[in-house]
Amino acid sequence: MNNPMAKTSVLVAACSVCLSLIIALTKFLHKYWWTPLRVQHFMASQGIKGPPYKFIHGNNKESDRLRQEALRNPMPGLSHDIFPRVQPQIHARIKSYGKNNLTWRGTKALLIITEPELVRELLKSNDFPKRTSRERKKDDEFAIKILGDGLVTSEGEKWARQRKLANHAFHGESLKSMSPAVIASVETMLERWKQIQGKEVELFEQFRLLTSEVISRTAFGSSYLDGEKIFDMLTKLSVITNRNIFKTRFTVISKFWKTADDIEADKLVKGIHKCVMEIVKKREERVSNGEANSFGTDFLGLLLNAYHDTDKKNKLSEQDLVDECKTFYFAGQETTNSSLAWTVFLLATHPDWQEKARREVMEVFGDRNPNPEGIGKLKIMTMIINETLRLYPPVTAMVRKVETEAKLGNLILPADMDVFVSNLALHHDPDLWGDDVNVFKPERFAEGIANATKHNPAAFLPFSLGPRSCVGMSFALTEMKMALSMILQRYAVSLSPTYSHSPFTQLMLQPQHGIQTDESYMWKHGVAFAGSLPCDRGIIPPRQFPRHQYEPTDEDWPNSKMAGC
Ligand code: HEM
């Protein structure tokens, strides 16, 4: 290398490599070290504290540890104080840093708010959109594989168009016309119960089948069997999502190096796509071979009309069609499954309320199948469902993002931050609900939700609030009331001694080990609906129920009423 020109070229090349490395390192440190520290400092100056940011991992490791510890053992007794077990990391931070605090999901700042005024403002505002599927890919990659870019995650015009379509499919007259399909699905479940009499029944699984059947029949015009593979694959994806929830992911690395979970999740996504398209093809073929003259008016029919729309502006792509279907398969099933299971669990452990609900059902429907008009008259059942949704909300949190610097209450929030609302925390806050916050007391809702919450809408958020509130609320409540009515008309439900009280979230709130009812605790009414009240029909009085370690105390049993019949 005697040539001075060559020497200079090598030097220049070496300098540019060094410079590029320095720039890359500076950018990296700016993003993963300087920016988080700056945000932390900025929020602290406004009184918002939290655990210190840890390089790249944020507070993920601590959150993961807290969660693992919380899930190690079942809860003592049948306590409804589930917040510390289900969201231990949120509970711990509220305790240490106050109702509003800052935490770090990897390098992403997460502002946790539990002050009702802030929560209401956030959820009602259009200035705090949801995180899009593209953004979620960075830190929520697995969850987004379940929902794709469907209604739950889409934004802007696409969201508005899809929301209108879903509103049409799940409200008013459409809802009424779904009743026969819901009843038929409950009847299928009750038939199954007859076959398994004498054996322990796991309610969460029973309601998984029921709610899968209901959403398949009502939204997709098919039976559970057609959607079975889709449900199974969605469940597998939620298990993978749950396993990775606090794992720090490096976007660049995960593009080149796939973990076993990445590979499995990609396979499931492809499998779901294929199965959804098979259901779509079946519906299309019915039209093309003349069996039907339109795609139909159910949710799938409306989606297919949009899929075949010749106007490019309204046309749905194949990917959008699949994403929308899997969103509704998932959102329409997992949520109602959870709330039905927890409602029956609470009825099983509060026989006085079970009996009150049964009496009401018998007064309204007698031995007839429920109908939409009668469903509107079930006041006690509505109180019970509301109290269940308060103590055990299937969706336990909502997240919104701060796109550009924004004001929330008196706080200035920097861009690129997420805001996390734990409705579970609000539902279990003694400041909002009183010292008996963890007691099952449906009578709180006797005068409606507004009175129960003292006109504080953010105190009770099972279906969220504002423009992104649940589109399936009326559908879910109708389905639940129909199913509960038909169960109560036929069975007295009690808990099996093998039940272990372990609520946890796998995207939705679930019983970690199921909800077991012992078949010997479940009685079909003796003489089929001949009398006017269940006690005339030979329901076994509660005092004869075998007792077990988690059973309520004597005071909880309505001995006099039932045993006296
Ligand atoms: C007890 C049952 C249910 C509960 C507790 C529930 C809860 C919720 C909550 C809390 C949200 C808002 C999430 C957020 O703000 O980020 C939501 C949204 C949504 N729910 Fe439900 N849900 C239930 C049943 C259903 C059913 C049966 C369907 C479908 C038929 C459904 C479809 C949806 C969809 C598509 C959204 C997104 C709406 C949007 O962003 O515009 N849900 N649900």
What would your notes on this structure say?
With 565 residues, the protein is of the alpha+beta class. It has a single domain, classed as Orthogonal Bundle (Cytochrome p450), CATH 1.10.630. The protein contains 23 helices and 12 strands. It has helices at residues 4-44, 60-71, 83-86, 88-97, 116-124, 133-139, 141-147, 156-169, 172-195, 203-220, 224-243, 251-256, 260-288, 299-307, 318-349, 351-365, 372-375, 379-391, 423-427, 430-433, 448-452, 473-490, 559-563, and strands at 101-105, 108-113, 201-202, 397-402, 406-408, 411-413, 417-422, 491-492, 503-506, 508-511, 516-517, 523-524. A hairpin with a 2-residue loop joins β5 (406-408) and β6 (411-413). α9 (172-195) runs antiparallel to α10 and α9 runs parallel beside α22 (473-490). It is globular and about 100 Å long. It is a single-pass membrane protein. InterPro entries: Cyt_P450, Cyt_P450_CS, Cyt_P450_E_grp-I, Cyt_P450_sf, Cytochrome_P450_Monooxygen. Pfam families: p450. This is Cytochrome P450. It is found in: Membrane.
Describe, in short, the structure shown:
This protein is an alpha+beta fold and 565 residues long. Helix content is 55%, strand content 8%. The strands form 5 sheets. The protein has a 4-stranded mixed beta sheet, with helices on both faces. A two-stranded antiparallel sheet has the order 3-11. The chain has a two-stranded antiparallel sheet with strand order 5-6.
- Low-confidence residue ranges: 519-565
Helix content: 55-70%
Class computed from helices, strands and strand pairing: alpha+beta
Q: How many domains in all?
A: 1
Outline the biggest β-sheet: 4 strands, mixed
Mean pLDDT: 87
Distinct small molecules bound, one entry per kind: protoporphyrin IX containing FE
- Got a strand count? 12
From the structure provided, what is the oligomeric state, counting identical versus distinct chains?
single chain
State the separation between the terminal residues, measured CA to CA. 107 Å
